[in-house]
Design a protein that fits this description.
This protein is of the alpha/beta class and about 140 residues long. The chain is built from five helices and six strands, in the order αβαβαβαβαββ. The two termini are about 25 Å apart.
Length: about 140
């Protein structure tokens, strides 16, 4: 363990976050996401919610200020929408970033395609439907 770094962040996840460059994306995937079949790099964070991981990640990881830095999967017509999922994520973003623009919504198959191009996919224990979140890394300013 290290001071100032959440114990929820594994050494593997810390390495991935550090290796990513500006504009690279990472998917925080819910427990139903097909991470093993789409990921270039797969990191396990079983048992952890995406909100908890965001609390650990965002103090270390700047969000992109040039493009929309957050994306969530759009709801398939007919499925229920749980507004609390996005609200929970945005509460964490607001505590860690100056500006907290709402995430863009990406059609399901386009989301999977984008996940295939992401730097990494983190499989979490998030059980809420449509809980997947893509983060785009910004510039680290010291």
């Amino acid at each position: 363990m290290l001071r100032g770094i959440s114990p929820l962040l594994s050494p593997e996840l810390l390495q991935v976050l550090c290796a990513m460059g500006h504009g690279d994306e990472i998917v925080l995937a819910d427990s139903n996401f097909p991470g093993s079949s789409v990921a270039k790099r797969l990191v396990r964070a079983d048992g952890l919610s995406i909100s908890a991981l965001l609390e650990g990640i965002l103090p270390l990881f700047p969000l992109d200020s040039y493009d929309v830095p957050l994306a969530m999967m759009a709801i398939v017509p007919g499925d229920p929408l749980d507004l609390q999922v996005e609200a929970d994520y945005m509460a964490v973003v607001a505590r860690n970033e100056r500006a907290g623009a709402a995430p863009e919504r990406v059609e399901r198959h386009a989301f999977y395609a984008r996940a295939r191009e992401a730097y990494a996919v983190v499989m979490t224990g998030e059980t809420r439907a449509y809980g997947n979140l893509i983060l785009k890394k910004g510039v680290v300013r010291l």
